[in-house]
Here is the input.
Amino acid sequence: MADEHNPESSAPPPASGGTAEPAKPSAEAPKPAPPKPAAAAGGHAPPKPPAPMAATPWEGDVPTQLKNRFAGQISQCSTYLGQNFVVVLADAVVPVLEFLKLEADFDYLVDITAVDYLHRPERFDLVYILYSFSRNERLRVKAMIADGVPAQTVVNVHTGANWLEREVFDMFGIQFAGHPDLRRILMPEEWEGFPLRKEYSIIKQDERWIRENLGIESGQ
Here is the structure.
């Protein structure tokens, strides 16, 4: 009779012929396959992202008049996502803005800005943003200009260009020939460098000016 206080006494005896053979470890389970991308509805492969949209030709009375008036000085009249723009030679900026103001009702200069393409021969894009109240339309006029080559001021066309050109000079170092008072407008007059140029490090400000005027060793 098995001893109820000793569980081992109820274990079955080993098979005849010797002791029981220890169990062999089971083979390693196969690793699960990496998950496949989820299929789109209907069992098809997921759709590819759409290709970037390209500018399309801008058609209408204004681009037609511009091309007729400034043949050879306008390289592009296009629209992108509903925004019309004209690319002109740098020497044509003043007469083009005059025409747009006096004959096409783009009489409000909203802004002047620039884009720095550091490794392009004509390094900067100058961008003039215009608005027509009668048309309720915006228009951008772009011109490429090389580093160190002054652009012609448009103050005589739009008086409000005075401070806008000063800001572009202050941030990018672009000179405007004929400007009545071209000097910094955001940074201190003694500041060295132009903060929005691509080679200008934001963590390495004008250390001399900061040390002399703020009494610290770092501009961070």
